[in-house]
Design goal:
Blueprint (H helix, E strand, L loop, with lengths): L8 H8 L7 H11 L3 H6 L10 E2 L2 E3 L4 E3 L3 H18 L13 H8 L7 H9 L2 E5 L6 E5 L2 E7 L4 H16 L10 H15 L2 H6 L7 H11 L3 H10 L5 H6 L4 H8 L8 H9 L6 H12 L6 H7 L19 H7 L3
Parallel strand pairs: 4-6
Antiparallel strand pairs: 1-5, 2-3, 5-6
Length: about 325
């Protein structure tokens, strides 16, 4: 350990035994080496401002283990999202409190919440939703008193629905109070998502033996879940359906394209796919950045990143140089 953090073994030993203090640079190297929280190393308490991330894990049936393969690549993106909130200086979300349980969440979201899921989450629960293509999976965290769900931008609207429901489960069940996401937390969040999107009472009330592929396609569209998710839910409830079992091996899009007849003239399947692929940040967050840029308090780099455009292509209101001072003179005075 001494070699890894640039200390002599004797110096490290004496520091551990309280015979000398740790220098600031030494603590920083120790925190970097062990991926630890520097605030905790110094104070003994977790940093109250550091967002505690909870993510949707992949589950390996063969090893019965959960993992986030893309977490190392996701971390810089999550840091940028956190920075966007920190730079915005938004006040804590007033009136936000997690629903007490899955039934309360469903009641607050209202009937037919799956289609406008993102809007209902923000408007009725006070949880903000960020969608970016760089993420490999969904995350949730609370930053400066504002609950956030971050999801990857893909065309899989049914996977997006499940990811949002899963992360909502983490928020409702209070999993962000734990420094580590436990396997039990993941199972609980998965169960929350299943009951929110596919309530057991509703599943048991349907005639799954007599269902046709056309019926199944219509239900899948209305429920907003994948064929695989529905098959897994029915299996967990001990409900047998030959048609669902047969179609669970095919993609959701294949079932819909072949057996669902839309009532609208346009192509609603493609519309849903497009919506799930759009980069998205809450309007309040973008507005706060625009206001701070106009006052000269922050640059426009983070806002450009949020919008997915180059800095130099983003035309926004910026501070006007003082009268009588040219831009070149101002830059010279600043040494730029």
């Amino acid at each position: 350990m001494a070699a890894a953090v640039g200390m002599t073994p004797d110096a490290l030993s004496r520091a551990i035994h309280g015979q000398r203090g740790f220098g600031a640079a030494e603590l920083m190297r120790i925190a970097d080496h062990f991926d630890a929280d520097l605030h905790t190393l110094i104070s003994g308490e977790p940093d109250p401002r550091r967002p505690r991330l909870v993510a949707r894990h992949d589950y390996d049936q063969s090893t019965r283990t959960r993992s986030i393969p893309g977490h190392s690549a996701d971390r810089p993106i999550l840091d940028d999202i956190t920075l966007a909130y920190r730079q915005a200086l938004l006040a804590p979300r007033e009136g936000w409190s997690a629903p007490s349980d899955v039934e309360a969440a469903r009641t607050q979201l209202g009937a037919g919440f799956v289609r406008p899921f993102v809007e209902r989450i923000e408007e009725r629960l006070g949880i903000e939703v960020v969608r970016v293509g760089e993420l490999s999976t969904a995350y949730s965290f609370i930053v400066d008193g504002r609950p956030v769900i971050a999801i990857p931008a893909t065309a899989s609207w049914f996977r997006e629905n499940w990811s949002i429901a899963h992360e909502l489960g983490h928020l409702v069940l209070g999993h962000h109070a734990n420094p580590e996401t436990r396997d039990a937390d993941e199972r609980a969040a998965h169960g929350f998502a299943a009951e929110l999107l596919l309530p057991a009472a509703d599943m048991r009330s349907l005639d799954w033996q007599g269902v046709t592929p056309a019926d199944l396609a219509a239900w899948i569209w209305d429920l907003g879940v994948s064929t695989e998710a529905l098959a897994n839910r029915l299996e967990s409830l001990g409900i047998e359906s030959p048609v669902v079992r047969d179609w669970s091996g095919y993609t959701t899009q294949r079932l819909l394209r072949h057996h669902w007849v839309p009532s609208e003239a346009d192509d609603p399947i493609t519309i849903r796919m497009d919506a799930a692929a759009v980069r998205r940040f809450p309007v309040a967050l973008q507005t706060a950045h625009l206001d701070r840029i106009a006052r000269g308090e922050v640059g426009k780099g983070i806002l450009a990143w949020m919008l997915g455009v180059a800095d130099d292509s983003l035309e926004v209101e910026e501070p006007t140089p003082r009268p009588g001072v040219s831009t070149s003179d101002l830059l010279d005075a600043l040494g730029i």
